[in-house]
Design a protein that fits this description.
The protein is mostly helical and 384 residues long.
């Protein structure tokens, strides 16, 4: 059965020492035979898992791995798909933007996660934020596509990410430099499930902090989507996120302050991400992202991550004053797109405009000197 508040502590401790044996064996062999670059190229030909996907051009051991990975979660149903699609019908733009800002920065608050990313080549190097956003954007976009959980296309994207995680684990293992006693397994099952919590229940909490109403049915649908993703990331059933939003929130609330800490690595990664946004969308729009991130995360965790205070100090303003600030400033930042409307949530307008702006960020990340396909590493410090 999936995680519960009763078993979370013990299970997460066990999960911190476990990788993904099937993916690890495959990727270790690909690395040793220097086949990673070729397989990365072949990733472009894999559009779905399941019937109809031609695997004949793949190395047989990779093709067999993909066939073995096809099965959905054991408790998956059409009702779960409909629930997930219902959430994205109502909230895809806002949720995607928050996952690309609050979610990515939230993963840097895991000391092990931040250290792993910083020490792993392109994901932690100078171009890391853009590359990580480009590959994450593919996942966020695919999650919101109708039928993506029916036709195997989302399963294919997530399975590629699973193999990327395996490449990180194997390269650290082969380097002989990873401190297993201190850090546990690189990209362990604990980290994978923890990241799924950040991108799911933490985003729902952020939406609530921003005054966005998400119905119980939609919250359930979002958790169904991440239960599905968690499964295709190679997580055994006992460590899967439940589909019940209240249960996941209880697990996350109980674990978060044990898992999130301020570290030099986390602050470094956050600073890189913010610099990337500033360079890409300019100081005005990036100030909006920073302000929204602080409100969504709360000052406690934003300070922990090193998120600077924005000139748009949304969280520090009373509701009425804050609304005037957001409406007037948003109009200036985004070409007059936001209009002042009396009696609405002060964050909603800037969220709507910022989420539209984030669509452009995603398009850039997917097309401009980035690769929208998850890419395994052949070398630990791969700066190609």
């Amino acid at each position: 059965m999936p995680l519960t508040t009763a078993n979370a502590v013990a299970e997460m401790e066990a999960a911190s020492k476990v990788g993904d044996p099937a993916a690890d064996a495959l990727v270790s062999d690909l690395i040793d035979n220097r086949e990673v670059d070729g397989v990365n190229h072949l990733f472009r030909t894999i559009n779905k898992l399941g019937p109809g996907q031609d695997l004949s051009q793949l190395p047989e051991r990779l093709a067999q791995f993909l066939r073995d990975a096809e099965a959905p979660p054991p408790d998956w149903s059409d009702a779960d798909v409909k629930a997930a699609e219902g959430f994205f019908d109502h909230h895809h733009g806002e949720a995607s933007m928050l996952q690309g800002t609050v979610g990515l920065i939230g993963t840097y608050l895991s000391p092990t996660g931040a250290f792993t990313l910083r020490s792993t080549g392109r994901l932690g190097g100078v171009e890391g934020p853009g590359r990580r956003l480009s590959q994450s954007s593919r996942l966020f976009i695919d999650m919101g596509k109708r039928n993506a959980m029916r036709d195997g296309s989302l399963a294919a994207t997530v399975t590629k990410v699973r193999l990327v995680h395996a490449s990180v684990r194997q390269l650290h293992k082969k380097s002989g430099e990873w401190d297993y006693a201190k850090w546990g397994e690189p990209v362990s099952q604990k980290y994978t499930t923890g990241a799924a919590c950040v991108f799911s229940t933490q985003i729902l909490q952020g939406m609530k902090n921003l005054g966005l109403h998400v119905s119980k049915d939609d919250a359930h649908g979002f958790m169904c989507a991440w239960h599905y993703v968690n499964h295709y990331l190679g997580t055994p059933e006992k460590w899967l996120l439940p589909k019940n939003a209240d249960e996941v929130e209880a697990v996350w609330n109980a674990q978060r302050d044990k898992e999130w800490k301020k570290t030099d690595d986390g602050v470094f990664m956050t600073a890189q991400a913010i610099a990337f946004y500033r360079d890409l969308v300019g100081p005005g729009a990036s100030d909006a992202y920073i302000a929204l991130t602080r409100v969504a995360l709360t000052d406690k965790y934003a300070d922990m991550a090193g998120v600077p205070k924005s000139p748009l100090d949304l969280a520090g303003k009373p509701l009425a004053v804050g609304h005037g600030l957001v409406s007037n400033t948003a109009g200036g930042l985004f070409g007059g797109a936001a209009k002042k409307t009396v009696g609405v949530n002060p964050y909603k307008e800037i969220l709507g405009v910022a989420s539209k702006a984030f669509n452009e960020v995603e398009k850039y990340a997917l097309t401009h000197d980035q690769d929208d396909q998850p890419q395994m590493h052949q070398e630990l410090h791969d700066n190609r």
